[in-house]
Amino acid sequence: MRKRLLYADDEIEEREYEDWVYLSLKRELKRRGYESTEIVCARDAARTHELLSEVIFDYIILDIMMPYGKNPLAFIAKEPIYKTGLALAERLLKKEYKNNMDNRVVLLSGSAVKGVYKRLEEIAAEDKRFAYMEKPTSMLFVVKFLIGG
Hints:
There is one protein chain. The chain has one domain: 3-Layer(aba) Sandwich (Rossmann fold), CATH 3.40.50. It is 39% helix and 17% strand. The protein has 6 helices and 5 strands; from the N terminus they run βαβαβααβαβα. The chain has a 5-stranded parallel beta sheet, with helices on both faces. The longest helix has 13 residues, at 114-126. The chain is globular and about 40 Å long.
């Protein structure tokens, strides 16, 4: 069965094949026998929420600081920009996305504010489906966590 991964990060290049992180992710998946994994990209919080609500994913990589996007829902729009991904992570933690309740999730941040950083660590400690990693990070570590190896 083909696996599906959500890669939500506003820094993804418009053309994924030019994005070095995306290419590194594909390479690490291939090295571990997951070359058929479909990677679905989202570049803002509203699109990420939409995908989490509609599509079943096996793995999720979620940037903590993303732009709101077009027509963000109230729970996203009320957050400061540096916490948009955290709002989505909290919903994943509470299992509010019915299609995505048992996923392995990597939370990424390149510049977490002190209180946000603490909450990310708490989420990772509270639920072993989650890991927090600071950018830049090796896709080797990300993929190893996601596939459990």
